[in-house]
Amino acid sequence: MSFRDTFALGEGDVSMTEPMEPVLEPGLRIVDAHHHLMDGPGHRYTIDDYAADCALGHDIRASVYIEVRQHYRDGGPEHLRPVGETEFVSSLAERAERGAWGGRRLCAGIVGYADLAIGDRAGEVLDAHIEAGGGRFKGIRRGVYWDADEAVYGQTTTFTALWNAFKRLTGGCSDDEKRLLYRENANRAYRLGLET
Fold first, then answer.
1. Stated pTM of the model
2. Is residue 95 part of a domain?
3. Is 86 helix (H, G, I), strand (E, B) or coil?
4. How many domains is the chain partitioned into structurally?
5. DSSP code per residue over 95-133
6. CA 152 – CA 134 distance, rounded (Å)
């Protein structure tokens, strides 16, 4: 299943079944600084789905995984359960480093979750994420933006159209500016250590 097949759209939304648009600037190397993998009710988008989308023509060289509160540990202290997501994603990154998925450095960086309202125990969670990430853990996010109204939350597009939209926005930029926008900023911000 690909990105275009993963999300059901409501009436009036852009059809995910429309013909795939041509890839703009296929030679532009990209570090995808924000992607998710999901395997829950209503949404399934695995690493294989993401890798297939990365192979559609945009030159995705590496990516940063952003947490979606899945693959938590089933047991142990409640505050440490989110570390299971980092463990899971780190195992995928190890496979990518060994050459899976076309040699792309998928999940080269990982942003996880920690409940910051738990006081001093939050440090224990961060330490556990750092250990589980094997050098890939880059920080946490605390999302507060969800809305039950699909008009707010349910907007999506195809993988190719998304990256083409970014490329259209930067169409007037120089090659150096594009290098910074598409690779160097994510590489520096997430300390990925990639050759770009």
1. 0.78
2. yes
3. helix
4. 1
5. HHHTTTGGG-EEEEEEEE---GGGTTHHHHHHHHHHHHH
6. 36
